[in-house]
Amino acid sequence: MRNHSTIRTGIFVVPVLLFCWSNSQSAELMEIEVQREDDVYNMNSVSWLDVRPEVLYNILANHDLFTKFTSAVIESRNVEPDEEGRPQFFSRFEGCVILFCKSFIRNGYLELKPHKELIAIVHPETSDFKRSREQWTLVPEKGGTRMTYEFEMIPDFWVPPVIGPFYIKRALKSGGEKAVDRIEALAQSQHPAP
User: Fold this and answer.
1) What are φ and ψ of residue 90, in 5° steps?
2) Strand-strand pairing, 100-113 and 88-97
3) Distance (Å, rounded) from C-alpha 138 to C-alpha 148?
4) DSSP percent split of the chain into helix, strand, coil, nearest 5
5) Phi, psi of 11, deg, nearest 5
6) Strand extents, DSSP E, 53-189
7) How many of the other CB atoms lie within 10 Å of CB of 8?
8) Is 14 helix (H, G, I), strand (E, B) or coil?
9) CATH assignment of 2-160+182-190, among 3.40.50.2000, 3.40.1390.10, 3.30.530.20, 3.40.50.1370
10) Distance from C-alpha of 89 to C-alpha of 35, rounded to nearest angstrom
11) Is there a contact between 110 and 61 (Cβ–Cβ < 8 Å)?
12) How many Å apart are CA 73 and CA 93, to the nearest integer?
């Protein structure tokens, strides 16, 4: 059985995140799509942000900053590179659906193409996900950045039926709206407008 949902909103947050920044212009979310087929969840979005790709890349590559993006991220940090030299990360998320609350751990590594692409892949053996892969693609556009975001995950935990998808849609919208202000404040404090 296929469950397909499309959400149109200002921005979104998942275990992963979309980011918004505003100097003279505000970020624009051009499209966002959320799908679920069996246990596989997918998110895809395209945004335009009023920030240079290299600035956005540096923020996205730094997991020490992820707690500033959304209240769902309780703890996040950079971890020493693995034996292949890939940067690693640790994140802990927390979410509740009615009275059911759960903490989720993500341990993984990054594959990086500086200022162009970031891919975050979890280690299933030390995470609460059978599979989790995020990809941000950054392209200069109109003095800012066009950011394409792709996310796929298979949770390794129980997701409440019926109410779970409803909660995810609501959390994406409200969490994203709150994240906009946090990202904007962080970006402006690190890179003030001239």
Assistant:
1) -135, 135
2) antiparallel
3) 7
4) 25, 45, 30
5) -175, 170
6) 73-79, 88-97, 100-113, 117-122, 129-141, 144-155
7) 9
8) coil
9) 3.30.530.20
10) 26
11) yes
12) 4
pTM of the full predicted structure? 0.79
Tens place of pLDDT per residue across the chain (194 aa): 333 333 333 333 343 344 333 344 577 777 777 777 878 888 888 888 788 888 888 888 999 988 887 777 899 999 999 999 999 999 998 877 677 778 889 999 999 999 999 999 999 999 999 999 999 999 999 988 888 888 898 888 777 777 766 676 566 545 554 554 565 566 656 766 55
How far the first Cα of the chain sits from its last, in Å, is 53
Listed in sequence order, the residues at least 6 apart from 83 whose beta carbon sits closer than 8 Å to its beta carbon are none
At 21, the amino acid letter reads: W
- 9 close to 33: Cβ distance less than 8 angstroms: no
What number of residues does the chain have? Answer: 194
Q: Which helix (H) or strand (E) holds 182?
A: helix 163-190
What ranges do the domains of the chain cover? 2-160+182-190
Residue 158 phi, psi (nearest 5) = -75, 130
- Segment (H or E) for 6: none
Question: Which residue matches tokens 């402006």?
Answer: 188
Look up residue 18 and give its two tokens. Answer: 């979309």
Written as six digits, the tokens of 41 are 């969840």
